[in-house]
Amino acid sequence: MATKKVTKIGVLTSGGDAPGMNAAIRAVVRTGLYHGLEMYGVVRGYNGMIDDDIMPMDSRSVANIIQRGGTILKTARSTEFFEPEGRKKAYDNLKKRGINGLVVIGGDGSFKGAQKFSNEFDIPCIGLPGTIDKDIAGTDFTIGFDTAVNTAVEAIDKIRDTADAHDRLFVVEVMGRDAGYIALHSGIATGAENILIPETKTDIDAMIAALSEKEKRKKLVNILVVAEGEKFGGANEIGAVVKERLPNADVRVCILGHIQRGGSPSCLDRLIASRMGYSAVECLLNGTHNVMVGILNNKMHYTPLDNAIKAKQKISNEWLNIVKILAS
Predict the structure, then answer these.
(1) How confident is the model at residue 328, as a pLDDT?
(2) Contact 26, 65 (CB under 8 A)
(3) Dihedral sign of CA atoms 143, 149, 151, 154 in order
(4) Is 279 inside a domain boundary?
(5) What is the number of structural domains in the chain?
(6) Which of 66, 78, 147, 264 has the fewest C-beta atoms under 10 angstroms from its C-beta?
(7) Is 133 a catalytic residue?
(8) Structure confidence at residue 69 (pLDDT)
(9) Predicted confidence (pLDDT) per residue in 57-101, tens digit
(10) Handedness of CA 107, 108, 109, 110 (dihedral sign)
(11) What is the rounded distance in angstroms from the CA atom of residue 24 to the CA atom of residue 21?
(12) What separation in angstroms does the CA of 198 have from each of 11, 231, 238, 318?
């Protein structure tokens, strides 16, 4: 069956917000308009598709947003969309407007929805990896990761200042869900004494022994960076163990939380979001459908949505060795 020409494109943001999503929306809308397409914004992700919260967008709709964090289209996690009735309702709302192409900016959960939707209906989907977690295979960068890491680095640098002033040990928890990339990158960049991530088993005894040895050397200022998905239990649990087993240490716990999800996107996030948004429209026009647009080795890379939701970005042994050596 011949593929129908895409003439009207909807764009939505889904799942957790990430800095740079607005830059991606802007790129999608303006690239579509350049090619003479009609562009639509879907508000609140898949919920907006189901509730028919869909609006036409022109060039002015995306003016002055590239520097803003969050997403002008708002975002949500939709349980109804994972039911056949919800997807059918969403399809009917797109169909009555003639929308025959969809760009979904989000993470693996968003891609699962897009993959189900595109398999059931005649509307091709393109996924853009918008997540601070950097947990999606098929791309060196995800939209929002660089900004989130820089936010964490700035916060940890400030924490080290006060740790140094008081000779304290800080346990700092960063976001990342089940992926340790934010912890890994921010920990290395701030000279953390330990980095605890979900991808490796935390050896509490070895960590306590290393901290005890540093305590004997009068090195009282230590930063432990912990990923929120770390299997031992997170920063509060790690902090409690350290306090119990190193009673002379002045231990504080700091959870950075959602501060990492907000803020003006970095230059890198604006650039990759713009590049990916442009490529998403080009894909829909040239017949490359139902893929995730990524960047590998500074070149555009297209991963079938089926593969994008199954594969996870893995942390290489080289990174783990760097952590081991530099934190010693």
Answers:
(1) 63
(2) yes
(3) negative
(4) yes
(5) 2
(6) 264
(7) yes
(8) 97
(9) 999 999 999 999 999 999 988 999 999 999 999 999 999 999 999
(10) positive
(11) 5
(12) 33, 6, 13, 16
